[in-house]
Design a protein that fits this description.
Protein name: Zn-dependent protease
GO molecular function, one term: zinc ion binding
Distance between the termini: 36 Å
Number of helices: 6
Shape: globular
Order of helices and strands: HEHEEEHEEEEEHHH
GO biological process, one term: proteolysis
Bound molecules: zinc ion
Oligomer: single chain
Strand order of the largest sheet: 2-1-5-9-8
Largest sheet: 5 strands, mixed
Pfam families: Peptidase_M54
CATH class of one domain: Alpha Beta
Organism: Candidatus Scalindua arabica
Radius of gyration: 16 Å
Length: about 200
């Protein structure tokens, strides 16, 4: 049902050449966070952003010894949706993610498929037993979302630790780098007409 409606909307708006990104909540994600992310990404990228139908909790990706979720399996689940009408997809999940090579990840992207996922779990102060800070939490979400979306435009990790495309190994890296592209990454994005300003 939701799909049919999406297709109709898309068909009626094909005259608009604006690219589209779909944010997919995986499990329950706070509505305010979803809308905030939607707006912030629309301000930064030259895209129209929709919020898609919520997917089930990713129990299929759960590793019971690690007590974490394999992010690549979540990306595969998103890919299997076969969503049409979107150029890129960004999943948002609130479980702790890992890939076999790393103890945890803030997110993951498949560059060729233009699919990405971010996790909110380690972006909260609470995760580190610190007092909650909603402003900081939201700031971190945008940094990670811009980073993973950046990958879907073909950007690789950047060596500039103030660039959003720098690989965050720990949260301090995220807080240090911020949500802006360095001049190099920015010019790649500009060439693709991928960003505003
Ligand atoms: Zn990355
Ligand atoms: Zn860069």
């Amino acid at each position: 049902m939701g799909n049919a409606a999406t297709k109709t909307n898309y068909a009626s708006s094909t005259s608009m050449s604006k690219k589209k990104v779909c944010i997919i909540p995986i499990g329950t994600i706070d509505k305010e966070i979803l809308h905030y992310t939607q707006k912030e990404l629309e301000d930064r990228f030259n895209v129209k952003i929709d919020i898609g139908r919520q997917l089930e909790d990713p129990i299929y990706a759960y590793h019971k010894h690690k007590m974490q979720y394999h992010s690549t399996k979540i990306l595969k689940r998103i890919h299997k949706l076969g969503l049409t009408g979107y150029d890129r997809i960004l999943g948002i999940v609130d479980v702790d993610l890992y890939v076999p090579e790393r103890t945890f990840v803030f997110g993951e992207a498949v560059i060729k498929k233009k699919i990405a996922v971010i996790s909110l779990t380690r972006l909260r102060q609470k995760f580190y037993d610190l007092p909650e800070d909603l402003t900081l939490f939201k700031k971190r979400i945008i940094i990670e979302a811009v980073h993973e979306l950046g990958h879907t435009y073909g950007l690789r990790h950047c060596t500039d630790n103030r660039c959003v495309m720098f690989l965050s190994k720990i949260l301090r890296d995220t807080d240090h780098k911020g949500a802006a592209f360095c001049s190099n990454c920015k010019s790649i994005m500009e060439d693709k007409k991928a960003i505003t300003n």
